[in-house]
């Protein structure tokens, strides 16, 4: 990366909006924990509201936040449905079930911490790129601009 390249100026409102894309998902996790789809719905609405009128910085981070939520939803949905099956007696608690629940709890904690970290850094006008979702977001925007 060229250190002499100028970064585009990011206004306070843009940093605040981009930070909210991550904070919104963490707040929705707290409120809608048993319903894994609620996070993605909130992320989709925020992305759609900012996709045309907002700056690239805000659009990028709202899309990256939405993509990270889309990854978590299927994992959580399986865990919720499996737990419901255990509760109503259609499945039993097994080593596989316990291992899956431990894995999704760890995964959700990682996603929660990374979202809070991204929200704080983006609020400071730092351009945070998640390992998988950053390049994916860039590809989506490159294909849209062609």
Overview of the structural elements:
With 146 residues, the chain is an all-alpha fold. The chain has one domain. Helix content is 74%, strand content 0%. It contains five helices and no strands. α2 runs antiparallel to α3. The longest helix is centred in the middle third of the chain and has 33 residues. It starts with 11 loop residues before the first helix and ends with a helix. The N terminus is likely disordered.
Order of helices and strands: HHHHH
Structural class: mainly alpha
Range of strand content:
under 5%
Mean of residue pLDDT values:
80
In summary, what is this structure?
The protein is mainly α.
What brief labels describe this structure?
146 residues, disordered N terminus, mainly alpha, elongated, single chain, 5 helices
Topology at a glance:
Blueprint lengths: L11 H20 L5 H14 L5 H33 L6 H29 L9 H12 L2
Helix pairs in contact: 1-2, 1-3, 1-4, 2-3, 3-4, 3-5
């Amino acid at each position: 990366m060229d250190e002499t390249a100028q970064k585009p100026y990011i206004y306070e409102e843009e940093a605040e909006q981009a930070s909210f894309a991550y904070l919104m998902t963490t707040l929705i996790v707290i409120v809608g924990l048993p319903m894994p789809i609620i996070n993605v719905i909130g992320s989709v609405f925020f992305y759609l509201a900012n996709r045309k009128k907002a700056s690239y910085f805000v659009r990028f981070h709202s899309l990256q936040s939405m993509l990270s939520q889309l990854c978590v939803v299927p994992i959580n949905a399986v865990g919720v449905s499996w737990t419901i099956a255990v509760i109503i007696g259609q499945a039993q608690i097994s080593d596989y079930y316990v291992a899956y629940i431990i894995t999704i709890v760890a995964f959700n904690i990682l996603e929660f911490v990374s979202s809070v970290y991204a929200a704080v850094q983006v609020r400071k006008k730092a351009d945070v790129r998640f390992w998988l979702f950053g390049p994916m977001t860039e590809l989506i925007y490159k294909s849209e601009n062609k």
